[in-house]
Amino acid sequence: MAITLNSGFKMPIIGLGVWRMEGQAIKDLIINSIKIGYRHFDCAADYKNEAEVGEALKEAFDTGLVKREDLFITTKLWNSDHGHVVEACKDSLKKLQLDYLDLYLVHFPVATRHTGVGTTDSALGEDGVLDIDTTISLETTWHAMEGLVSSGLVRSIGISNYDIFLTRDCLAYSKIKPAVNQIETHPYFQRESLVKFCQKHGICVTAHTPLGGAAANKEWFGTESCLDEQILKGLAEKYKKTAAQISLRWGIQRNTVVIPKTSKLERLKENFQVFDFELSKEDMELISSMDREYRTNQPAKFWGIDLYA
Questions:
Q1: pLDDT at 296
Q2: What are the catalytic residues (predicted)?
Q3: Is 107 marked within a binding site?
Q4: Which residues are catalytic?
């Protein structure tokens, strides 16, 4: 199953996020996921593992497991590279060992002090607060992103972690409309207004953290996972699925793309087995009642400032 983007290209509705994946584990994970049926991989310069992903992709292509045109590869422009879009994109392509990207996203709507292309540590000032560059506008960044499409380095471009106001602005100044807005959304953080706004204006929503971050975000941010919610557990029993599968199916039935992350083979298989059932309208509404407006991924922990404030 795929969603056709406003750029005309098709994006598989379920993908694998590779945040917090390292070394040999990535190669095994990507090769196994391709064998299971995954064709969409969500990367980022900030994940510091593009080179390892590239090795895995090369092996998959070299062994004939899959062809380049069968895969949809996303990566992202880091905050410190807003003034160096072309160089940053080429650096990612080199690490990923690809000639083009299917989708390139502005990772966060903020430019920070440049630390050198390919270096993605958070640029903090002496006060421990993110060193924001106020000389580079998001409009300037976006026009540089559009240049990547013209030059053939990227097929589709999009945004990530943009709210309604910033998305509206991007629509106003763009010559090439953003194809995607990737945001945190899950049953505890449904963001119905933002999702509806994007979809109304032809922007596909990709749900990062579609399972509420589970144990990983509990460890990093001290947040609770929606998978422990009794409503999801009850529906899992009803449909003979897991709470994670119910959550992913809910996301798919909202017409959002979901990119769950897991390092476990069993979960990898499980997360892909969401096309053989459908949630009823009543059960979709039941999950809608779970919304807590609860963000589980909070970069303020690392940046000393809450950009969502």
A1: 86
A2: 47 (proton donor)
A3: yes
A4: 47
